[in-house]
Amino acid sequence: MKDQIKGLHHVTAISGPPQENVDFFTKVMDQRLVKQTVNFDAPDTYHLYYGTQAADPGSILTFFPFVDAGPGHAGPGMASAYAYGLNPRSFDDWMRHWADRAVDFDGPSERFGSRVIILRDPDGAPVEIAEDEAAPDHPGLFHGVTLWLEDIGPTRDLLADVMGYEEIGHETLGGEERLRLKTAGDAPYVDLMRRAPDHVARQGKGTIHHVAFRASDDADQLEWRERLLAAGMQVTPVIDRQYFNAIYFRSPGGVLFEIATDPPGFAADEAPDALGQHLKLPPQYEGRRADIERILPPLKVPA
Ligand code: ZN
Q1: Phi, psi for 47 (deg, rounded to 5)
Q2: Which domains are assigned to the chain?
């Protein structure tokens, strides 16, 4: 049997001011803020994590909120969207829920035979909601992620030949071609999408920074690192991200990929019932807490 990656661990995006981001994802999307910390590479910026109540891998959406970030535009070489799955029996209820609250969305349109609606976050980034028989009645677990590529081939080869994904669907709708790939079990899809760009691709607020796949533990991650090196990828050494260990590499189509370990998880430094309530800093920044708290914009989080 070939080695199959376990699916998605998290998706990380760039946003504008943090308060709008928190309000949207906790109130409109009804996600749990599971961690407030800082960007470990730039500790004057927050790193906010959202997920399900249990902070399951495969539900984690994270943001680097920059107060004065310029607007970005997705384009070829970037992940252009993530989708939450929603059970078909709850889909109409949620559409009504958002409509009643004057939350605008596009659709429903159809993708691979299932309905998809697209909400917009405060930075205009798409938040896709897709019907999914395997999904719960509440949005929170990822249904999939879309990678926008100029040429689908090299990324398909990496995902299929090295990471164990299988092609399960191909469709072209309205000038947009999608190849759908799937790994083990109910893990989220990866859609490889090709269409003519309507903007120059630019990283900025409202765009996805990287997509992280799951490793079950450190040993599994090191095996993936060896396989990726053998396939010619330039992979970073293991980096301690406090809640997981991470390795990063640029996929052939240009999208930044990460592989993150499930352990130790988000309860590593605060109690499971108190996740997200307080600013958590990794040991290397705890000594600078007073400075960091003075620089970061104040944040009101739901209790
Ligand atoms: Zn990451």
Answers
A1: -130, 115
A2: 8-295 (3.10.180.10)
